[in-house]
């Protein structure tokens, strides 16, 4: 499963690491847009296989942030 950005913004903080177990609705990445923090959560439980972004990166809506298996 891919976790994608629901809006454009900067990656403010990555809350998990590759190999971490995540639960459904657990925050994975926090975006910053227009001085607001927008948490992006996993849609289902699994293991973070790969992080596709780094803190400080700019992402557009629909960009893949992480892959969960």
What is shown here, in short?
By secondary structure, this protein is mainly β.
Explain the overall architecture.
The protein is mainly β and 69 residues long. It has a single domain (2-68), classed as Beta Barrel (OB fold (Dihydrolipoamide Acetyltransferase, E2P)), CATH 2.40.50. The chain has no helices and eight strands. It has strands at residues 2-4, 9-14, 21-22, 27-33, 36-41, 46-51, 58-59, 64-68. The strands form two sheets. It has a four-stranded antiparallel β-sheet, with no helix packed on it. It has a four-stranded antiparallel β-sheet with strand order 5-4-2-7, with no helix packed on it. A hairpin with a 2-residue loop joins strand 4 (27-33) and strand 5. 22% of the residues are buried. The mean pLDDT is 97. Pfam families: Biotin_lipoyl (PF00364). This is Acetyl-CoA carboxylase biotin carboxyl carrier protein subunit. Keywords: Biotin. Residues 1-69 form the Lipoyl-binding domain. InterPro entries: Biotin_Carboxyl_Carrier/Decarb (IPR050709), Biotin_lipoyl (IPR000089), Single_hybrid_motif (IPR011053).
List keywords for this structure.
8 strands; biotin; mainly beta; 69 residues; 0% helix; OB fold (Dihydrolipoamide Acetyltransferase, E2P); four-stranded antiparallel beta sheet
Instruction: Identify low-pLDDT runs.
Output: none
> How far from one another are the termini?
6 Å
Structural class: mainly beta
Q: How many helices? A: 0
**Main sheet properties:** 4 strands, antiparallel
CATH class: Mainly Beta
**Shape by Cα distribution:** globular
Tell me the series of helices and strands, N- to C-terminal. Answer: EEEEEEEE
As for the CATH topology, it is OB fold (Dihydrolipoamide Acetyltransferase, E2P)
Report the β-strand fraction as a percent range. Answer: over 45%
CATH architecture: Beta Barrel
CATH superfamily: RNA polymerase II/Efflux pump adaptor protein, barrel-sandwich hybrid domain
β-strand number: 8
């Amino acid at each position: 499963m891919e976790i994608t950005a629901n809006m454009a913004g900067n990656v403010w903080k990555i809350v998990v690491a590759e190999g971490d177990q995540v639960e459904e609705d657990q925050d994975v990445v926090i975006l910053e847009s227009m001085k607001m923090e927008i948490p992006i959560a996993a849609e289902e439980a699994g293991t973070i296989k790969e992080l596709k972004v780094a803190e400080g990166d700019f992402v557009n809506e629909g960009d893949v942030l992480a892959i969960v298996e």
